[in-house]
Amino acid sequence: MPLIKRNEIPALLKDEGKLAELSVVLLFGERYLCKEAADQLQEALTADGRGAVHPIDGDHEDQGQTLAKLLSFSLLPGRQVYRVSDSRIFHSKTVASTIWDKAQQNSDAGKTAPAMRHIGAFARLGSIDLESQKPFSEISGSQWEKMFGFSKPGDLGWADSLLVQAVGTGKLPKGGGNITERYIDTFTKGIPDQNVLILSAETVDKRQRFYTFIKKEGLVIDCSVATGASKAAQDAQKDVIREMMNKTLADFNKSIEPRALEIFFERVGFHPVAAVTEMEKLAHYVGDRPQIVAQDLEEMVGRSREDALFELTDAFGKRQIGRALTILNRLQENGTHGLAILATLRNYIRKLLIFRSLQLQPTPAWHSGMNAKQFQGSYLPALKEQGEWSDMLGGHPYALFMSFTKAGEFSCGQLKQWLSLLLEAEFRLKGSPIPQHIVLEEMLLTMLKLQRRG
Question: Is 74 found in the same domain as 98?
Answer without folding.
Answer: no
